[in-house]
Input
Amino acid sequence: MATDIGIGKSTNENSYDAGVEAARKALGMMGKSNPELSIVFFSARYDMQEATRGVSETMGRCQVLGCSTAGELTPEGLSKESLAVLAFRSDTIKFKSGISHGLCQNSWEAGAKLGKIFEEQFDDSYNLTAMLLPDGLSGNGAEIVRGLYSVMGPNVQMVGGSAGDDLKLKGTYQFYGAEVFQDSMPGVLFLSESPFGVSVRHGLSPVSMPMLITKAEGNILQEIDGEPAVNAYLKYFNLSLDAKGIEALGQLPESHQHPLGMPELGDEYLMRHFINTTPDGSIICTGEMHQDSIVRIMTGTPESLMNAAKEAVAQAKISVGDRKIKLALVFDCVSRLWILQDRAAEEIEAIRSVLGKDVPLFGFLTYGEIGKFQWGQPQFHNITVVVCLITE
Output
């Protein structure tokens, strides 16, 4: 009984050829095994239809799904503008794949729909882990997670990341089989005889006093302590509380290194980056903000983020004990680059230093991450790294 993994990558300029090349490399790494499942992460520079056609035709009778990204992670490290393929088969892990649509129209319902697809093969005698790949520019990530949780309940771990588009912020792509979509969420439910190890870390710490979110709607943070939300940032950076201050804030690189954090159980923080401001002083965030929650301005260093990534791997390894790790899935927020800057590749090497060089790594830079702190329910995160260790 075994789990066989193959990973391939291509930077071929031709979209179809890139899909074929990466898929052939993954198959070659598997040897004589025939894959049952293939996951594909690729740069939005490719023609999605042609790239997926190349992968699907090469893989043969195999379920194929994936999404566009803001960077691809393979055993070679972090790459940009590439196409990466994971080929997978196992005697000890079953799976059920599927896709749901309409995230923008009703995110909760989209999550619940995928949960119902997974429910068709639900068997709580196995260890259950759901991997989700939602559109990163459509819908409410927190509602997606809550919708799936409403169907699957606490016995299912959730991991995953939101699709990206190389930071162009114009539109992300998801695919299932040979079809390409937007505003959708493909995913896989793994049913394993051995537990998967999952951990979430960010490495940021509060630098402001606790403040109260007095008005918020979705990802629009309108008021903090009864004032326009942007005032909290203006005060922190000693900028004037007027239009000139807001303009200066938008031009301040350091502002991107100071996301917002809402405290959770166990001294953790649920992280949110701010995308932009509105004329009324509201802040547009990368994820849902909770009215009546405490919020603090956070910061970190390249070292603190890399240490957090190592901690995530170490914690995930503890949860699987001495079981053999076949693969590490890594979902790493592209917003961390604001702090890591030109040291992003070092974070992946930090992960590998704890993981071990013999364990293959596969993942991507995301527009949001899905996972659970040590306590509580699974959540939609920003500026975090989620590690999932697949064992046999």
User: Anything to note?
Assistant: The first helix runs from residue 15 to 30. The chain has a mean pLDDT of 93. The chain has two domains: 3-201+304-391, 205-299. The chain is about 25% helix and 35% strand.
